[in-house]
User: Fold this.
Amino acid sequence: MERNGNNRNCGFDDLIVSYIYDEVSAAERRKLEGHLLGCSACTEEFASISNARFSVFEWHKEDFSDLPTPEIVIPYSTSVVNEQSAGIWAGIKALLGGFGMPAFVATALLVTVGAAFLALTISRQSGEQIATNVETEPVRPAPVADKQADRTVSASTETVPVPMPVAVPSVDPSAEPKPVKAVEIRRRKPARQMNSQVAERVQPPPQQQRKAPALSNFDEVDDRSLRLSDLFADEIDTR
Amino acid sequence: MYINFTDEQLVEKAVREDPEAFGEIVRRWERKIFGLCFGMLGREHDAGDATQETFVAAYRSLGNFRGEAKVSSWLHRIAVNQCLTIKRRQKSRSEEFLDDENGEEERVFVASPSLSPARRTEQAERLTLVRQAVGALPTDLRQVIVMKEFEEMTFQEISETLELPLSTVKSRLYTALKQLKMRLERTPVEVV
Assistant:
């Protein structure tokens, strides 16, 4: 076995490190192994580097391999929910947080808004149902269906020609179907036009007109409940 | 009993059929030979087999030792030969028994995994020294050791992470291990 004299590991430093960590090609592996068999200096060097590496490996294995890692809990579901509702909740939080309102006030506000929205939706559906009922009336012009409906839907009417006859189940089948001349379809008007219709919509409907189903027994005309303005009517007058 | 004897003296005694003398040689060099075999084979189990076979081969060839080289060089050469033999054997086995479901290996020597209390103490002291030696390395050298050994990164990954040439990374790791070896040899562990 030869010794390499002053030549530092015969230039195999990098190759020795790569070999120890098994990051060499097959050709490099054969080259180093063949050299180690004939060069005692490189064999000594290889043994030295390999032992140092083994010391670190052993230290790592003994001191770190069995170390318990902390349990990491990531609330994936919560983060997803927050992400989905980020737009709405972020806006509400920013709004409420900005005003410094307590949580229960915020909740009450939300409930109130929700109830108002629900009432508005139900009223609108009622109006549409009334309009549909009016459409099914054979010939006669659609009257103002109901006061309750009138509160949410304008009483203005508009004549629209309909080409097809409307089948009415209640009509006698032996009688000739009457041609449909026109159907009045009630359409919503802008809010600023509703004031001009107030006088018109408080007029009681004719007795012979078909009455649309009412959502409640509440009648605005007969509403005799105490109002705030009634309580302070005297004060207002004195002032 | 043989602590104060040199390696060459121990070999002379072992040649004269003194088994305890050869036992002392084994005790002195088994770890270093194991480290060499571990570097060549990459697995502890294979390194253990290679170490065992190295000392068996050394004992059988005691009569051929002429004292021209150091005992350490002689053992290292035997160890390299044994490692290459094991590699060739593994390669031929993997080619011949790719479909072998049993996968049983012929093992003549099985090293005992249990350590004596004295060996445990020695190992604990050695690990303390390694910890201190690694901590005393310059930051740039310690960095590559940690990335290689603890994070198990390839040289290429370390090169990209540190934005260093591949050759520089290898050179740093080589220097780090070299310095580590020197620091460990400077403070040898006292064997009980």
Remarks:
- Residues 103-136 of chain A form the longest helix (34 residues).
